[in-house]
Design goal:
The complex is a heterodimer.
Chain A lengths: L4 E10 L2 E11 L4 E6 L5 H8 L7 E6 L2 E2 L5 H8 E4 L11 H9 L6 H14 L15 H13 L5 E5 L7 H18 L2 E6 L2 H4 L4 E6 L2 E6 L1 H8 L2 E7 L2 H10 L4 E4 L2 E6 L2 H11 L3 E7 L3 H11 L4
Parallel strand pairs in A: 3-8, 3-9, 6-7, 7-8
Antiparallel strand pairs in A: 1-2, 1-4, 4-5, 9-10, 11-13, 11-14, 12-13
Chain B lengths: L1 H15 L2 H7 L1 H23 L6 H36 L2 H6 L5 H33 L7 H28 L3 H18 L11 H9 L3 H19 L5 H10 L5 E2 L2 E2 L2 H26 L2
Antiparallel strand pairs in B: 1-2
Classes of the chains: A alpha/beta, B mainly alpha.
Amino acid sequence: MTFAIQVENLCKQYGEQQAVKGISFTVEHGSLFAFLGANGAGKSTTIEILCTLLKKSSGTVNINGYTLDASNDNGEIRKSIGVVFQQSLLDARLTVQENILHRGKTYGLSKKQLADNYQFVSTYLHLADIENRKYGTLSGGQKRRADIARALIHRPKILFLDEPTTGLDPQTRQFVWQAIKQLQLETNMTVFLTTHYMEEAAVAHQVIVLKEGEIVAEGTPDELKTKYAYDSMAIVFHNSSDGIQWLEKNAISYTEKLGIFSIRVDSTLHALTLLKKAEPLIASFEVIKGTMDDVFLHIMAEGGAA
Amino acid sequence: MEALFSLVKRNNKVFRRNKTQVFYSLLSVIIVIVLYAVFLQKSQINAIEEMIKTTPELVTMVNEWIVAGLLSMIAVTTTLAAYGIAVRDLESKAQADFLTAPISRATIQFSYVLNSFIIGCIFSFIALIGCEIFIASTGGQLLSFGDFLKVVGILVLSVLLASVFNLFLVLLANSEHSFSTLSTIIGTALGFLCGVYVPVGALPSFAQNIIMYFPISHTTLLLRNAFMESSISKVFEGAPASQVEEYKKVYGIVYDLHGNILSTSTSMIIIVVTIIVLAIVSIIIFKKKNK
């Protein structure tokens, strides 16, 4: 089967410094793919290479069946991709519609096709109320809507988003996310995004964690959670010294902070059996599910399985 | 092609809607107009009156002289300001967005050049109309149809020269900061380099040589010739040929370079050759930068 994106041994060197150190991965058609990593991990460099903005140092990249940097393929790649950048890059003094149409005309579409596409993105991203306003006067969330609409004006097969929600308020973040997910579901578009919000990566089909230019973990969010995150339980005892005694008697390792004891549990049921045994000692408790945050922190601290 | 036109249209809108930028691009021209209104016109008339009897055409001749200088300056300042978009796009990374579309860097760059040329033409033609109204309202005669076409032709050539000249400079400026420094230097020096603030003849000979070697000043010279031909002949009617010659040399209507009087066709050749050379050099710089 062919993949939407196929990367093999991709390297990028800036002088002495190696920003991307030979990474390989594949992205399936129609999937939501998240690229995770701290700042400076090489996420943006990788995405810029895939978007034909930056020359790779070595390795092979195949996007939508076209080979990156092969004779005439970059033009075909550009027709198949849409890119939403970290910053807002449209012209402040032009209206949203002018911005989108001017850029839409650079794809060689027919007049009718362009008009149809505009209709499509306008409906999808609710542009009706902002399309005649100057881009510079829009709020952060409205700008993002326009940015995404611009990236979709030529109906690309693959949408790249470089930290699309960084710096947005929670409500706008949610809107942007819903729009992306809906698009991906309804149009079967491949979505490739970078983020450092763990909860965003959690809804992806496939996640890759990048650290210092290398892949340190990959898998579905569930796989990663099973591997790197665990549930824990926070307990407050009536009497802390009795609690310590009990924990030590049962050889349970714990950490303590302000009288709250945290212990690792294998599952919620495991927590229940422990709780039953210690019931008379316990004043209150809380079972905390493992999250993608734990996965990220754990991988970053230990360097993952690599 | 459609992509190129769309980019040019976009550049054009981005420039025109930035009113402060449009104002700044005309600032050095506005300064000349103010200086002229305050004292340049008067002192020039006084100086000429010392060599020849006063006629009503004298004021017109001096007005036409300044108008020619202004028009040649506008071509340079507006085209340079239009390149500001290119510098800003590069610095703000806005160009990256264009580069994700199937268009080449060369197309994008060419769209800036074309936009500069169009902006230069638009402003030059508006200014030309304004100048004609000014001359007519101060008792002068409008250009004849033939001379008008000649002036339009020279304007187009001077805008082309300015577009290429500024392209060369802008390719060397890598940030908005260096671009604004460049704009300030050009805006200040241009009035001197075209012999508009001070007539060529009033300067020491090394400065005269700099002006005569400065290709853009030749557009000023050609415009002066086109505008002033009939008023000069009226003002200097009956005066000895040597006196006319002297006036033309002092006020930069002919150039006397190392004892040789340059013909207007020499000026044309200098302009055309400069355009070709700078265009080739700019292409080489552009290719080197984007290797």
